[in-house]
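Journal club prep, shared notes

We agreed each person brings one worked example of a sequence with its structure written out as tokens. Mine is Polyisoprenoid-binding protein. I'm keeping it raw so we can talk through how to read the token line rather than staring at a rendered picture. Sequence first:
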Amino acid sequence: MVTYVVDSNHSSIEFIVKHMMVSKVKGFFENYEAEVEATDLEDLTTAQVSFAIDAKSINTRNEDRDTHLRSADFFNVESYPLIRFASTQITKDGSDYELTGDLTIRGTTKPVTFEVEYNGKSKGFDGKTVYGFEAETKINREEFGLTWNAALETGGVVVSKDVKIRVELELTHQEA
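Then the structure, token by token:
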């Protein structure tokens, strides 16, 4: 197995959630670590993937909202500082992949499956080979203990229970 590192300047972990039943809020996590080990990244089925995301690093470009998301109403970052993911199975689906693993948020672990697209490989300016991937899934935030909400007088709620998670990765071989 070869260990690959994430180029954080060309990678992201983002989320999208419906707000007030009429628009969407997008955000991302600024700080995370990822480890990908694989025999061959052109065949992702040989890989093991894990993430540790600093929940405090949430950023929706609105400090009041970010402070609320860090509170006990949502991520409770004082008690649960990390969001974790560890792969359990990767299968090929045509030219793409399904990456299944255990996602842990607020101490609750549930299986999730990401649809993964392999974007290919290229040589970087430093001569190293880089690999690109995009992955997406949707979770029900309430299943992970993120249950805060408020009813709207027009019907509906402030925050949708469905959250789309999108990951874009650029990986390079880790030097010894």
